[in-house]
Specification:
Layout: E1 8-12, H1 17-28, E2 32-37, H2 40-54, E3 59-62, H3 68-82
Parallel strand pairs: 1-2, 2-3
Length: 85
């Protein structure tokens, strides 16, 4: 059991760099990881890599942080699916 079991985290920019490494680390600690990414193709490739490296399933959500409607939509989806973070 990891120290993050039962915890849900949303990571923006989880498809590259620090965001991707954070997703791997938190998944390894047992967290339910939700990748919040703008580009679906890059997110899909990163999701596969994160799952392979961590041995855990992660989920994705589409978000464009420069678009308030996109942020509201993503927040609504997160609230509906996960309740709390």
């Amino acid at each position: 059991m990891g120290i993050m079991n039962g915890k849900t985290v949303v990571i923006t920019g989880a498809n590259a760099g620090i965001g991707k490494e954070a997703a791997v680390a938190l998944a390894n600690l047992g967290a339910n990881v939700v990748m919040a990414c703008r580009n679906p193709e890059r997110a899909s490739a990163a999701k596969a890599e994160i799952e392979k490296r961590s041995g855990r399933s992660v989920e994705g959500i589409s978000i464009d942080l420069a678009n308030f409607d996109s942020i509201k939509n993503a927040a609504d989806q997160i609230a509906e699916r996960y309740g709390r973070l």
